[in-house]
Amino acid sequence: MAFCSRNSRNIINNLKSKVGLSRLMKPSSDCCYTSCLNNTNRCRFLAPQLRNPDSHSQNKGHFFCFQRFQSTTTEQHFASLPNGEHNQVLDFPGGNVVFSPEMQFLSESPGVYNPCYRVLDDNGQLISNSIFVQVSEEIAVKMYSNMATLQILDTIFYEAQRQGRISFYATTIGEEAINIASAAALTADDIVVPQYREPGVLLWRGFTLQEFANQCFGNKDDYGKGRQMPIHYGSNKHNYFTVSSTIATQIPHAVGAAYSLKMDKRDACAVTYFGDGGTSEGDFHAALNFAAVTESPVIFICRNNGWAISTPTSDQFRSDGIAVRGQAYGVRSIRVDGNDALAMYSAVHTAREMAVHEHRPILIEAVTYRVGHHSTSDDSTKYRPANEIEWWRMERDPVTRFRKWIETNGWWSGEAESQLRSSIQNQLLQAIQIAERAEKPPVKDLFTDVYDNIPWHLREQEKMVRETINRHPKDYPADVPF
Amino acid sequence: MLGIARQKMLEQSSKMIRPVVSVLRSYSSAAKQMTVRAALNSALDEEMSADSKVFLMGEEVGEYQGAYKITKGLLDKYGPERVLDTPITEAGFTGIAVGAAYYGLKPVVEFMTFNFSMQAIDHIINSAAKSNYMSAGQISVPIVFRGPNGAAAGVGAQHSQCYAAWYAACPGLKVLTPYNSEDARGLLKAAIRDPDPVVFLENELLYGESFPISDEVLDSSFCLPIGKAKIERKGKHVTIVAYSKMVGYSLQAAEILEKDGIDAEVINLRSIRPLDRSTINNSVRKTNRLVTVEEAFPQHGVGAEICACVLEESFAYLDAPVERIAGADVPMPYAANLERMAVPQVEDIVRAAKRACYRSLQTFSNTGVKLNTVGRCWHQVNNKWEEIVRNFVTLLIQAL
């Protein structure tokens, strides 16, 4: 059993900080902290373990009062324990522990799987009595246009790679709702630390089709100065950290950024995305643990799309998905239908409120399916049945589902659809043509940004390279400017 | 469990460290003394008070006052928001510090020893060193990674490796190795102010050592330039290049060599990346002979890099092959006698300098392979022969 080995001064200090925070809390959260103060530190350490498994707030429908229901149940439960010799409590470091003469192992699997929050059914119709955050017509239409744009963008760039015009591409097909709906629920100040399957977030924030094309072609207008593979977008002005290929390293980065936002007292949070495979990395566990301990305003969004290249989730982990892991680290979590744009929007919107105002991390497990191959270097029909892929592509398409909802509301039509699609198609093809013909980055960009200022030895090397190019111009490509 | 093992290791090594001396001890002469520990502590304190974006992170840096007491008093002064005690996860807290640096804060990450930095090395290299380049200047990482590096006393193989060569191989990082208190203060301040990621390699056995320090160094704006080596001792017969603890050994060797009429120039590298190639080369062009000294493993080490850069720029000036002194090519043994043989000692440096000056012979094995071993036993066996031959050669020269 892992006990915190902190001395009593630390516990008192933490208690003081809790008292301070509770003054800033919304009324709904006061109960938990009041009960905490009454029982010194007992509630803080025990409340999660004693949580009543029947009170799944999602089913109760009182989304915003989640905390209050949990803690009052816990409070009563704790108070009702008889003080017989079978129920002794001892204060180990880390909290009071109730004894039991029955040897009971915690089961490795819950009897019931963690339910999944959804609001629109498979036909895009609103489920009755569902709780969700209302979306205006303007936002909903913008969300849909972006989802459709993302779909077309992916298709065309994938084709461009197959034609040999770019070296590499990875699509987001099947996960458009996660990308766009989560982006729509955030503000422009929120820092996004992506993995590599979230270009939709950048699209929502205003990255143009031309800018996407420039990065994929690595030309002189690429914000990355041609230093990275395609799809490794990054843009300071959109608060979107540059994509890094290493899996899960972005998760602790987001916690660090969130901690900094908290230190700066900003009204913003950090958001990071990762796949089901990424949750196996050590960085995931350290980051969640840290976020809980440092009370950082960070939202972890896991795109559980069933596959990590060729590894299915049954080979990746044996837990009931990802959301239950959040609980193990003391992080509030929820499982959401990732193909339901409205549910994603609601969940991220609420998570953001909690993260920013309560200074806590939130874990969102968005369940979905990776319709495309892992990347252009992969042929997923080699390890999964083609009909499974087709079924998810056609029957479970998140874009179609959301379109049905906005059509039901009278906000969209077939005409608008064809207009949008043809317009985006043309814009994209044009952007690709322009990007392909543009010059590559100049030779000097090979040596800049290694350090803040160019050190003398790199300046010398640049000079040597230029001299060599001057002596042997036919050995160097014509489209690389000097 | 690992925490307990480390605690025991710390208790053991702290017994071997000299007792902490007070920050300033003024003598009847004007020269003040300061331990390296106090120098580092004062540098951190001053930089934290000058810039509110600077914050510390690491295991035991707060409540415990620092595993080696480098961060003593800082938690009380700056509070838990700026001095963070982290859970035991180097990969985790390094990633988090890098994320904070991406945002714009200036973290100073402490590794209990740099051996544990291997658990975080992906973040140091792939997240910190390469980010400015990969993001085309959009993400700068003003982070400092500091901690004790290299051999301590009786801590075994997994606590004794020197990482200077590993980190110095990576473009995007800066790697600093202070020796005395002036180095410690000046270089740490420079590192914290630098917008690039810096790996700051200290030495556990130097923490308790006291060095004289001038008033200029004590000033809060004092800063040393990164990438400049210091000539600790001027000489004209042979150049000895070293970093960290080996600088002290080289200075002692120079004293011994002086008695034999060899005037050695000792260079304290201070900065491994960028390497001060011009100072090294200028010195070699003056003395024509070079000895490199490091505690680390010999292959692909700092000494190898120095040899290469001298060959590239000053080949014609060399009058003798470069002598490279390094630690033995074995994981560090624990037993005190074996440990002593696995790291260079002052005598090894003296002998290498003499070989470079043609004042003693190279030793050859039966197969004719030149042996420049560090192991003491070889030299004990050959000492007698060296003396005999040296006397003979001296006679010959006199006769001519």
UniProtKB/TrEMBL annotation, chain A:
GO biological-process terms attached to the record: branched-chain amino acid catabolic process
Substrates-to-products reaction catalysed: N(6)-[(R)-lipoyl]-L-lysyl-[protein] + 3-methyl-2-oxobutanoate + H(+) = N(6)-[(R)-S(8)-2-methylpropanoyldihydrolipoyl]-L-lysyl-[protein] + CO2
Source species, domain of life: Eukaryota
MF GO annotations: branched-chain 2-oxo acid dehydrogenase activity; metal ion binding
Keyword Kinase among record annotations: no
InterPro entries linked: Alpha-ketoacid_DH_E1_comp, DH_E1, THDP-binding
Dehydrogenase E1 component domain segment(s): 146-443
Keyword Mitochondrion: yes
Compartment(s): Mitochondrion matrix
Enzyme class: oxidoreductase
Protein family membership: Belongs to the BCKDHA family.
Name of the protein in question: 3-methyl-2-oxobutanoate dehydrogenase (2-methylpropanoyl-transferring)
Source species taxonomy: Eukaryota, Viridiplantae, Streptophyta, Embryophyta, Tracheophyta
TrEMBL record, chain B:
Record-level GO BP terms: pyruvate decarboxylation to acetyl-CoA
InterPro entries, sorted: PDHB_mito-type, THDP-binding, Transketo_C/PFOR_II, Transketolase-like_Pyr-bd, Transketolase_C
Residue span(s) of domain Transketolase-like pyrimidine-binding: 34-209
Keywords, comma-separated and alphabetical: Metal-binding, Mitochondrion, Oxidoreductase, Potassium, Pyruvate, Thiamine pyrophosphate, Transit peptide
Entry superkingdom: Eukaryota
Reactions mediated catalytically: N(6)-[(R)-lipoyl]-L-lysyl-[protein] + pyruvate + H(+) = N(6)-[(R)-S(8)-acetyldihydrolipoyl]-L-lysyl-[protein] + CO2
A GO cellular-component term linked to this record: mitochondrial matrix
Enzyme Commission number: 1.2.4.1
Enzyme class: oxidoreductase
Compartmental location: Mitochondrion matrix
Gene3D superfamilies: 3.40.50.920, 3.40.50.970
Essential cofactor(s): thiamine diphosphate
GO molecular function, one term: pyruvate dehydrogenase (acetyl-transferring) activity
The keyword Translocase belongs to this UniProt entry's keyword annotation: no
Pfam families associated with the record: Transket_pyr, Transketolase_C
Quaternary structure and partners: Tetramer of 2 alpha and 2 beta subunits.
Function recorded in the entry: The pyruvate dehydrogenase complex catalyzes the overall conversion of pyruvate to acetyl-CoA and CO2.
Record's protein name: Pyruvate dehydrogenase E1 component subunit beta
Organism (species): Hibiscus trionum (Flower of an hour)
